[in-house]
Specification:
The chain is 31% helix and 5% strand. The chain has four helices and two strands; from the N terminus they run ααβααβ.
């Protein structure tokens, strides 16, 4: 459940962290199904269209509820990207790759399938940059 403080934090900083939003057993099953499909380019694009466990997480009620409350709009999941190893990409903006009908309504939800440490090359984000 989002609090007024959560929404204010998001509006000020451009991100929010939801710990344990997806049940661990659901992540474990999804991860196992994804691992069967390791591609040579390190990523599966839109695998949610072929694998129900990915789609269930992409359309998770908690995630969609959070987005609806943050944006006051009905969220529309449209893409999944599953990586098997860190991409080691330099800091960049995805805005050039995506757009929405209404400006500033595109949002990414990153769900880690394992505990992340600095040694693994975690997602980097500059608060207030989005």
């Amino acid at each position: 459940m989002l609090t007024a403080e959560d929404i204010e934090f998001y509006n000020m900083n451009g991100y929010i962290i939801l710990k344990n939003a997806i049940p661990q057993n659901q992540i474990d099953i999804c991860y196992k199904n994804i691992r069967k499909q390791v591609p040579s380019n390190n990523k599966l694009l839109n695998f949610w269209q072929n694998e129900n466990t990915v789609g269930e997480i992409a359309c998770d009620k908690q995630v969609l509820y959070t987005l609806e409350n943050l944006y006051n709009e009905t969220p529309v999941p449209f893409q999944t990207i599953n990586f098997f190893e860190g991409t080691e990409q330099k800091i960049h903006s995805d805005l050039i790759h995506f757009s929405s009908d209404k400006q500033k309504l595109m949002c990414a939800a990153w769900i880690a399938f394992e505990d992340i440490t600095m040694d693994q090359g975690p997602l980097c984000f500059y608060p207030k940059s989005h």
